[in-house]
């Protein structure tokens, strides 16, 4: 009831124009709330099965696709990517490893200036720009979420080492094995479930601390572009998974299960590695101190991942529930924070010592 009260207030007061909330505990969905509208014209109410793009929450599933390739022996976490991706070893990137990519220490937190004129959906040219670019810092020496580059880097190494793409690995292996209602490249028959994104205020992009890392290629924050069919059916791994609040809460609720689908997918060693803190430090892109595992932010209270615009999902280490707040109204994370507080959780990003 406390969660419902907060959510209904957010919608009623206009702080939220379309969102879903889900909480799972002990294998059951104990909260499912929908509010507002799924479309910009406000004709279609948000439903329990509404799909929406949660921006960087997508990266969690890029990580899983990469770890499946590690599971299968196509590559390892700590060998140089250039051992497989032959053109990648230039520009100070000769010794860059998959572990550094997955923990946002690969020195490529943004696309290079040369990519400014490349179309947002030109995967080949964007990937080639990363291959040619110089690292912004010595890989492993600093920390900063690889805001738009994360998926293209993983896609590049999967193509080179495993003979597959990020989209294929997720949609053919990860998604069906975990039973996720989540898609990189939304099938045509599910397009009518996708919510339109909109700014909470006109200057929203300019208020983001991460904005300098999101400028290239142009369009990742443009509702006109990201609401298009072409974008929804593409694979831009860092940001454009489309999923439901229920699917994300269910996934996070079983994150640490010793007999769950995730552990079965990765095997015990990689499952443990996935959840283990890897690096703590000041993340330049987030603008705060935090702890990264291979795919999540972790502190003493939670294992979590969110995305710019306000979507977030987490496993409460203190209270034993999985929760997701997914929104189409691009604003800050205060709405998810209020839902978390009603559950006794804290979404503040804090590095674990």
Summarize the structure in words.
With 353 residues, the chain is α+β, with helices and mostly antiparallel strands. The protein has one domain: Beta-lactamase. The chain contains 12 helices and 12 strands. The chain has helices spanning 2-12, 59-71, 98-102, 123-132, 150-162, 166-178, 223-226, 229-232, 245-253, 261-266, 268-275, 334-342, and strands spanning 18-25, 28-36, 182-183, 198-199, 242-243, 279-283, 288-292, 297-298, 302-306, 312-316, 322-327, 329-330. The strands form 4 sheets. Strands 2-1-11-10-9-8 form a 6-stranded antiparallel sheet, sandwiched between helices. A two-stranded antiparallel ribbon has the order 3-5. Strands 4-12 form a two-stranded parallel ribbon. A hairpin with a 5-residue loop joins strand 9 (302-306) and strand 10. Helix 2 packs across helix 6 and helix 4 (123-132) packs across helix 5 (150-162). It is globular.
Fold blueprint:
Blueprint: H1 2-12, E1 18-25, E2 28-36, H2 59-71, H3 98-102, H4 123-132, H5 150-162, H6 166-178, E3 182-183, E4 198-199, H7 223-226, H8 229-232, E5 242-243, H9 245-253, H10 261-266, H11 268-275, E6 279-283, E7 288-292, E8 297-298, E9 302-306, E10 312-316, E11 322-327, E12 329-330, H12 334-342
Parallel strand pairs: 4-12
Antiparallel strand pairs: 1-2, 1-11, 3-5, 6-7, 8-9, 9-10, 10-11
Helix pairs in contact: 1-12, 2-5, 2-6, 4-5
């Amino acid at each position: 009831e406390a969660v419902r009260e907060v959510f209904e207030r957010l919608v009623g007061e206009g702080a939220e124009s379309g969102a879903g909330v889900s909480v799972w505990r002990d294998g059951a969905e104990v909260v499912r709330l929908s509010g507002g509208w799924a479309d910009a014209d406000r004709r279609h109410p948000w439903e329990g099965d509404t799909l929406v793009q949660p921006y960087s929450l997508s990266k969690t599933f890029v990580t899983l696709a990469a770890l499946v390739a590690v599971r299968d022996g196509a590559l390892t976490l700590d060998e140089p990517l250039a051992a497989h991706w032959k053109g990648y070893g230039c520009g100070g990137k000769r010794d860059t490893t998959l572990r550094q990519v997955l923990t946002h220490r690969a020195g490529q937190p943004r696309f290079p200036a040369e990519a400014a004129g490349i179309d947002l959906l030109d995967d080949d040219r964007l990937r080639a720009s990363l291959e040619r670019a110089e690292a912004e810092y010595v890989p492993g020496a600093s920390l900063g979420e690889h805001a738009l580059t994360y998926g293209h880097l993983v896609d590049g190494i999967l193509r080179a080492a495993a003979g597959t793409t990020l989209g294929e690995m997720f949609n053919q292996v990860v998604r069906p094995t975990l039973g996720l209602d989540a898609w990189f490249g939304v099938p045509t028959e599910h397009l009518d479930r996708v919510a339109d994104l909109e700014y909470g205020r006109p200057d929203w992009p300019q208020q983001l601390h991460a904005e300098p890392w999101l400028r290239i290629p142009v369009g990742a924050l443009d509702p006109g572009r990201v609401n298009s069919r072409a974008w929804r059916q593409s694979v831009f791994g860092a940001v454009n998974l489309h999923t439901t609040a229920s699917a994300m809460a269910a996934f996070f609720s079983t994150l640490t299960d010793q007999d769950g689908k995730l552990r079965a997918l990765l095997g015990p060693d990689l499952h443990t590695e996935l959840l283990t803190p890897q690096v703590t430090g000041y993340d330049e892109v987030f603008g705060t101190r935090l702890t990264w595992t291979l795919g999540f932010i972790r502190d003493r209270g939670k294992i979590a991942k969110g995305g710019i615009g306000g979507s977030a999902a987490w496993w409460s280490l203190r209270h034993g529930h999985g929760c997701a707040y997914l929104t189409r109204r691009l604003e800050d994370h205060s709405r998810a924070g209020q839902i978390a507080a009603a559950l006794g959780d804290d979404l503040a990003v804090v590095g674990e010592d």
